[in-house]
Amino acid sequence: MAVNKKALTDREKELAKAFEETKEMLRKCEHQVGMVMDLNKCIGCQLCSMACKTLWTSKEGREYMWWNKVNTMPGKGSPKDWEKMGGGYKVKFGGKVMEPVRGKHPTRKEFGDMWDYNYNDVFQNEAGKVHLQARNQVDGSEPDWAMNWDEDQGAGKYPNSFYFYLPRICNHCAYPACLDACPRNAIYKRDEDGVVLIDQDRCKGYRFCLEACPYKVIYFNFVTEKSMKCIFCYPRLDEKVANACARQCTARVRWVGYVDKPDSIIYKLTKVWKVALPLHSEFGTNPNVFYVPPLAPHRLTPDGKIDTSKPRIPRGYLRYLFGPEVDSALATMEKELAKVRNGGRSELMDILKAKDWHGMFGEFTKDPALMERKPPKGAKFTRPMP
Amino acid sequence: MEKIECKKVSISTRQLLDCDNGVWRGGKHVIETAATPLANQPSPYIKGTYDENKIGAVKKIAIKSVHNGKDIAVFLEWESPTPNLKIKDINIFPDGVALLFPFKNIDKTPINEMGTQDYPTNAWYWRPDFDEKPKNQVSHGLATSLYTEKSSLVSNSKWKDGKWRVVMARPLKASRPGERTVDLAPGKSIGIGIGVWEGANGERGGVKAFSKEWRALVLEA
Ligand code: SF4
Ligand code: SF4
Known about the structure:
The complex is a heterodimer.
Chain A: H1 10-27, E1 33-38, H2 47-56, E2 69-73, E3 89-92, E4 97-100, H3 108-111, E5 115-117, H4 119-124, E6 134-136, E7 164-168, H5 177-181, E8 187-189, E9 196-198, H6 208-212, E10 219-221, E11 226-228, H7 234-237, H8 244-248, E12 254-258, H9 265-272, E13 277-278, E14 289-292, E15 299-300, E16 306-307, H10 315-322, H11 326-341, H12 347-353
Parallel strand pairs in A: 1-14
Antiparallel strand pairs in A: 1-12, 2-7, 3-4, 5-6, 8-9, 10-11, 13-14, 15-16
Chain B: E1 3-8, H1 13-16, E2 29-32, E3 34-35, H2 44-49, E4 60-67, E5 71-79, E6 96-102, E7 121-126, E8 135-139, E9 146-147, E10 154-160, E11 163-171, E12 189-197, E13 209-210, E14 215-219
Parallel strand pairs in B: 1-4, 1-14
Antiparallel strand pairs in B: 2-4, 3-13, 4-5, 5-11, 6-7, 6-12, 7-8, 8-9, 10-11, 12-13, 12-14
């Protein structure tokens, strides 16, 4: 995989082979869980973000983190302009060669820092003299970015302006760039479900993973000086409870299940109906989070009539996000939608409507109130020491 | 093998910990440092995307060591145009320096791999944000280093005029439960290596400069 610019000694070759074998082992898993999110239904309420925050990121240096975030698209997202920060792989020769791409570190302010307010100043001064102001914790500057700062800005011109929401978590990639980057073998995929975890005991906060992850979903904990990210609620999965973001979702946007089991809805939406697509698949990491692309309402002519000549969301933009497959995905959805409109039935539309809420979570339907809350299981295997 | 003498002095450890103490003037040994080769980076990402020529901003480091029969002190000095004191942001890395020692047979302990499973190494790791309490670390080869629970190391450091000066001190014999470390003794010698990180160059982990070979640290009886 690595590009060797000079001849290696035998010992170096031996080492390189050992490293590659170790990485291969860390990347392997028996099954893979995944998530599908329907962008036609997301209302940007951030209940998923709050569920995650309450459960995982409310203290000990995680306060500024959003392991789940919902960005408005088109938009710069968080961290700001993450799509331009590099990382991931250049996939060559049909996947035979994966060349890592150098990435850039996001900054705390690009993610959106924690804010302090000048409550004391306001309280201790005469009324009207000092107004309430937020300040970034890192340098006292005025905040100019945050998790969904460009909320509802979108693009296009009235009456044909548009935006949609894009909820983001770690993609628990089949080929995680973060894992390959870590020189401490601290990142691994869980054997039983492929969840990608950062072992907090092995992480030394070097932040190569933050550079390499093309989705920029890893955060740095300034208190523990270790890298952290979405853990796909693995302690809940261990007790057959679905992820907090999925259960809490107002709009039945998220399905959870095994990507590789043909009876799962994830499998049906991704492999059978092919309407759920990974985000920026050109990054080469093979995500296990998939999106049903947004159809959006029709355009309007200046005199207010429905204009079907072109889609409201430029197709080029959706192709940029979800690849050329977005065309057939949208065509399938339109076809199935038409069936229902004409009084027929459609398995796909039944799935997407998600009348059966429990049915969205595959085998992870247990009520969290009934959890035994056993201490989470660690890695099943011990990572090899050269 | 190149020798670095560690003279016996009758100066208190408190005084030795002063970077400005006269004992550290003159008689320093200069060691050339070079980038850790990409072949030794246990990360396909680093191997594939980093340029070896841009790693290892620090090209040489001066070292002097003395002991007072009880404690050993090591003085290190190197050029660093701007001090990087702490992890202020995600893209900011602190400077650092580490001394490396083989636990066992020096000939069987590869310095550029920080030892092997059977021939581990011990590192004394200083960083400006460690509050002058350097970490003691054990490594069984690349990607395996771990801090021990305890560390007897203390340090003092100063950055001035584009230079770091750091003194690390410790009892000659320091191993105890929770602190696996090399024990030193007057009249004995041990292999020593150095690693140095320039924060401004994004150096951390294996992305650093190091002394490519072992030197012998010879403690005066
Ligand atoms: S999304 Fe990023 S952090 Fe998550 S598995 Fe993929 S590369 Fe790693
Ligand atoms: S809870 Fe559901 S609807 Fe609300 S923002 Fe999250 S994914 Fe969208």
